[in-house]
Every structure is written in C-alpha cells, then in structure tokens.
Automatic annotation (TrEMBL), chain A:
It comes from Zostera marina. Pfam families: RNase_PH, RNase_PH_C. SUPFAM superfamilies: Ribonuclease PH domain 2-like, Ribosomal protein S5 domain 2-like. It is found in: Cytoplasm; Nucleus. Residues 34-164, 169-231 form the Exoribonuclease phosphorolytic domain. This is Exosome complex exonuclease 1.
UniProtKB/TrEMBL annotation, chain B:
The keyword Cytoplasm applies. This is 3-5 exoribonuclease CSL4. The lineage of its organism: Eukaryota, Viridiplantae, Streptophyta, Embryophyta, Tracheophyta. Keywords: Cytoplasm, Exosome. It is found in: Nucleus, Nucleolus. GO terms for cellular component: cytoplasm; nuclear exosome (RNase complex); nucleolus. GO terms for molecular function: RNA binding. SUPFAM superfamilies: Nucleic acid-binding proteins, Ribosomal L27 protein-like. GO terms for biological process: RNA processing. It comes from Zostera marina (Eelgrass). Residues 11-50 form the Exosome complex component N-terminal domain.
Length: 248, 201
C-alpha cells in the first residue's frame, strides 16, 4: 500500500447508506414516523427556580432555570426582561471525548444561540422588566436530535419555574436519508442524513417559533417534513401538559 | 367567602384557552390573543381563579387569573413594600439590598437606592443621610420605580416606612429600641442614635 506523498486527498467517508434508492432500516426497529419513547420529569427543589430532565432514547438532558434575577450591573437598562441561554455538553456525552468530530456540526455555542432564538418567541419578556432569566442546559448523553430534546426540556423547566409564556414549546427533528423522511433521528441516522429539519412549535396556538433547515431539500419534501413534524410536536405537547399536571 | 371566588380543580398549563374576552377580563397569568376569536390563554401553570367584579365598576365581567403555582421568588414591582438591608451610606443617597417583597423573600438580592429627597416627606433638602441610616440597618421601604440599570429607587417618606431594626454602634452591639421618630436607644448602654424610624403598629 505505497502512496506517493506529493498529493493529498482526504479519505472518502465510509457511509453505510451508499445506495439512495433502497429503504433505510432503523437500527432500533422503529417506524419512520415513530418517535423514541420519551421520559420527562420536572422539579428539583434546590437553588434553581425550576428544572426538568428529559430522556428520549439515549439522549439525556437536564435544564435548570434561574431567575428572574438581577441583571449584571454593566448591562444597559431594559424595559423587558433578558434571556440568557447556555448549553454545555458533559465530557462523557459523546462516544469520542472531543469537540471536533467528523460529521458532528453543532457545538455548544450553536446550540446555545439556537435555544435562545427558539425560546425568545415564546417567553413573555415584558412580565419581568430589568431582570434576567438564566437557562442552563446540560447534555448528559448526546444520542441524536439534541437540539429538539433541549428545547422541549427547557420549555418544561420554564413552566415549572413559573415564568410566563405564551405557550409550551415542543420540538422534533426530521432527517432526510435518500428518499426517506425519518423522524427523531439517532446519532447514527444523523451521520447518514442528507438534510435535517428541526422545528420548535407551540401546540395550542398552532404557531412555529423556530425552523432550522440544513442540507438538500426539494419543496415537496419540505412540505411533507413540516407536516410530519407538526403532527409529532402536537402529540408531544399533550405529553408535556400531562407531566405538568401530575407534578402539581 | 364561599360565593366570592371559584377555584377550578384542574390544573391549567401555558397556552390553554381558559375563557373568552366577552365574558372575562384577563388577569395575572393570562393574556389575550387578538389573532383569533379574542380567546384568553393561560401563561402560567396553576389553578384558575375567577373573581367577580366589584359592585362599583362599570365593567360587569369577572376577572380570571392563575394562582396556586409554586412561582419563582418575588421580584420588586412599583408600589410594593420591601424590606431591605442598608449596605452603603453616602452624602446624597444610601444603597440597600432588597431581601423581601411584601411577605415573600427573594431568592437572590436586588439592589436598591434611597435618594436624599426620598428619605422623608418634609424638609427634604435638609436631610442628613448619616442621621437617617447606618450600614446594617433593616428598613421598610416603598418601591418608587424600576430606577436605572443599577438599582431600584426606594422611598421611606411615610410614617410607617424607615428603619425597623438597627444595631447599636456602642460596644454591646445590641438591637436598639426606638424612642421617637428620629432616635433609637441602646438598651444596655443607654446611647441614643439618630435614625429615620418607622412607626410600627
């Protein structure tokens, strides 16, 4: 296996799904439109104003809410409240203990700013002027659809903390692998995807707070993916409401 | 008492429709959506409470609000009575840390300022800050406004507002007893010190 060192070409990624015409088979035997079983729980009773834990298959996230509390003195006066989001991954969250992994585009800063944009549309900031609400999300295990799980968990924690919101926020992501649309992708499926659609949706008001679209899409597929994800978000909204009712 | 307010037994979550604008006024924890049919939505998790209108008001609708949720610690609002601890006294103002709002304590302290003109109601330009407050005093004050980026503006310009508890600067450090609306006395040494004292009933 001698190679002349005059030129360099990166090694072609070994992709499992070479033939795009075939049907994708999910490794955990779910249907294409079937989300992973979800376990969510609120309440911590410690220094945080509110908190929630979410486990969607192998993705596990804890979100704690602090506030409304005094803004830093250096900040300018503001008539409406401020939101501060921070997402961090634990060192054992991913199989390889490294931030720069092949095929893993999102890092902590990206997730934080996307979480901020999603929550910005749903929290009633004018109910706590001059103060700041801090949202801290900790990803204990990253098993795919991380942003969606973080958003749903954060909205549950905010409701637990008593922060006024227009509605609960639920989020799912849909991956396009070849011609198939699969919902709630795992890590393995995200590595193979050609495109990803993540939406944050308000189930009771039928409004979308955030849409993130990456990869190659045709218009028809986007429509289909939106319908699939809105329907799933709707069902997830009922799950979240039941958890809030039972925790009282 | 039983006929005044109704409490629902089911728990409402944010985003649920709790009523219609034609029959209810949105109160705390609810908001009005103008987009469709003027529905009233909940914005908190808790129980609905419907309060009938006062007999003198012209609007005959009841008010709906969401109560009963373990809400976050209190935040100071304009017009609320707060308990604060004085941290710094300067010639024109005093800084205080707000610790309770009404009857609830805060989770983390907020910064407040008592300006010279807000200490008392009469002769406000002749106020001596050092004769009104000392660092460490506990005061009851009223929130005048949200203030600037640094602190809320507080006022003690009423009889029932001012210092409620203070330590003596003499050797003993005992809690002083008020003897008039401008003086407090240490019970063990008899030393009299000047404060703007609150009239506690």
């Amino acid at each position: 296996m001698s190679s002349s060192l005059s030129t360099y070409a990166p090694k072609k990624l070994q992709r499992r799904f070479e033939n795009k015409e075939k049907e994708w088979i999910r490794s955990d035997n779910r249907g294409f439109l079937q989300c992973r079983p979800a376990f969510l729980k609120t309440g911590s009773g410690n220094a945080a104003s509110g908190s929630a834990f979410a486990e969607f298959g192998s993705t596990k996230v804890i979100v704690s809410i602090f506030g409304p509390r005094e803004s830093k003195k250096a900040m300018m006066y503001s008539d409406i409240g401020r939101l501060n989001c921070s997402v961090s991954l634990t060192t054992f969250a991913t199989p390889v203990r490294s931030k720069a992994m092949m095929g893993f585009e999102q890092n902590e800063k990206d997730l934080s700013s996307m979480l901020y944009k999603a929550l910005e549309g749903v929290i009633k900031l004018d109910t706590f002027p001059k103060t700041t609400v801090d949202v801290f999300a900790l990803v204990l295990q990253s098993g795919g659809s991380d942003l969606s799980v973080i958003i749903s968990c954060a909205s549950l924690a905010l409701a637990d903390a008593g922060i006024q919101m227009y509605d609960l926020l639920t989020s799912v992501s849909v991956a396009r692998v070849g011609n198939n649309l699969i919902i709630d992708p795992t890590n393995e499926e995200e590595n193979e995807q050609d495109g990803n659609l993540t939406i944050a949706y308000m189930p009771s008001r039928n409004e979308v707070s955030q849409v993130t679209l990456t990869g190659e899409w045709s218009t028809g597929k986007i429509n289909q993916a939106m319908e699939i994800s809105v329907a799933a978000c709707f069902k997830l909204g009922d799950v979240l409401r039941n958890i809030l009712r039972e925790s009282e | 008492m039983a006929g005044d307010e109704e409490r629902d037994d089911t728990i409402t979550t944010p985003g649920e429709v709790v009523g219609h604008f034609s029959s209810l006024i949105p109160g705390r924890g609810t908001y009005l959506c103008h987009k469709n049919h003027r529905d009233i939505y909940a914005s908190l998790t808790g129980h609905c409470k419907i309060t009938p209108p006062s007999p003198t008001s012209t609007d005959k609708r009841s008010t709906i609000e969401i109560v009963g949720h373990k809400s976050h610690g209190a935040i100071p609002e304009t017009g609320s009575i707060v308990i604060a601890r004085v941290t710094k006294v300067m010639s024109k103002m005093a800084s205080a840390d707000i610790m309770c709002v009404g009857a609830k304590s805060v989770k983390e302290k907020f910064s407040g300022t008592i300006r010279q003109q807000d200490v008392r109601a009469t002769e406000i330009d002749k106020v001596d800050m050092y004769a009104s407050f000392h660092p460490g005093d506990i005061v009851r004050a009223l929130v005048l406004s949200l203030g600037d980026s640094r602190a809320y503006f507080l006022s003690t310009a009423k009889n029932e507002l001012g210092v409620v508890s203070a330590q003596s600067t003499s050797g003993s450090g005992d809690t002083m007893v008020p003897i008039s609306w401008t003086e407090m006395q240490c019970p063990t040494t008899g030393q009299v010190e000047q404060r703007k004292v609150a009239k506690v009933v």
